[in-house]
Amino acid sequence: MLRLPKFRYWMPTTVAEAIRMKNDCGAEGAFVAGGTDLYPNMKRRQQTPRHVIGLSRVAGLGELRADATGVVIGAGALLAKVENDPRIRSTYPGLAYAISEISTPPLRNMGTLGGNLLLDTRCNYYDQSLEWRQAIDFCMKKDGNICWVAPASPRCLAVQSADSVPVLIAIGARAVLASVSGEREIAVEDLYRNDGIHYLSTRPDELLIRILLPRPDGWISSYSKLRRRGSFDFPVLSVGAAVRSAGGRVAQARLVLGGVASAPIRLTRSEETLRGRRLDDDAIAEAADLAAGPSRPMDNTDFSFLWRKEMTRRFVASALRRLKANKEAPAA
Q: The dihedral of CA 135, 140, 141, 142: what is its sign?
């Protein structure tokens, strides 16, 4: 049985108090909400904070409300709450579907949307017990100096595999971060760096407090996910897609890959080829072919990386066909 290391647990009741605690703890402190990512990492000694700051009692972090600009979701809102909210299901069905694909119902009743956005990057050589990693010599991401996926690589190649992220980027969601310096708002897309170790652009003292979903304004979205099993598994390839049409043609498109790099990948060439065209089979096929180029999966998750690259075409096409089938629906 893997056991947690010793740590001191703190329970703030306000955002300001939580931020002060983290500022006092420095690198020895870590925030935790649902704990579905942090606690397993601690058991494997991938993360060993001496102070854990629980966010479950922080006022307002579990909110989910509509306002004039769209929908505001607290970073501490449970995944199950977001997935089953009538406003999310009717207005942002692509996001609701992506969240429904996360793990299993018991874990969606524990995990939070903010936690999914900040999910640690994953790798077959990293997500193992301490003894397993010690036996092969530690990797660059924790305690070592080599990336076992690509030994000549100067950086860690662990992958970003959060289900909600590609769709949130596709619909133009924004994130609100708080620190002792105040609050700042950035695009969800700008949260990530293509580095398996330093995979977030946030500062160590910042706390993700809200996710802002813009009003749909004609956008519709979808999500496709590749995994071995029909439930529980993390994606080894995922696609978030969104389009806004005008006059029967695509006015704007956003296509995002997950599970193939340390950060989500925008498929800008595929987006450009769709603009001004009808979302027909020819346009979908061309966009899907262009998507395979930026998709460069490595041998650090399930399935062959060459097969996952080939599947990029099929899953981008699948996501776009879903949009074609539902383009008249008032979706996100």
A: positive
Burial of 124 (0-12, 13-18, 19+ CB in 10 A): middle
Nearest to 44 by CA among 108, 138, 115: 138
Angle formed by the axes of helices 281-291 and 305-325, nearest 10°: 150
Full-model pTM = 0.95
User: What is the tens place of the pLDDT at every residue in 70-114?
Assistant: 999 999 999 999 999 999 999 999 999 999 999 999 999 999 999
Dig out the tokens for 308 from the structure. Answer: 């996952």
Mapped onto helix, strand or coil, the DSSP state of residue 242 is strand
Q: Is the pLDDT of residue 254 over 90?
A: yes
Structural contact between residues 235 and 212, judged by C-beta atoms closer than 8 angstroms: no
Residue 331 has pLDDT above 90, yes or no: no
For the chain, the residue count is 332
Question: Residue 184 is which amino acid?
Answer: R
Domains and CATH numbers, the chain: 8-58 (3.30.43.10), 64-117+159-325 (3.30.390.50)
What is the spatial distance between Cα 244 and Cα 180, in angstroms, rounded to a whole number?
39
CA 268 to chain centre: 19
Q: Is the dihedral of CA 201, 206, 211, 214 positive or negative?
A: negative
Which residues, other chains included, contact 68 with Cβ-Cβ below 8 Å and sequence gap of 6+? none
Report the SS3 class of residue 70: strand
User: Quick one: pLDDT at residue 327?
Assistant: 63
Per-residue pLDDT, 231? 85
Amino acid making up residue 50: R
Q: How far apart are the first and last CA of the chain?
A: 44
Buried b (16+ CB within 10 A) or exposed e, 16-27: eebbebbeebee
* Predicted confidence (pLDDT) at residue 329 exceeds the cutoff of 50: no
The tens digit of pLDDT for each residue in 25-83 reads 999 999 999 999 999 999 999 999 999 999 999 999 999 999 999 999 999 999 999 99
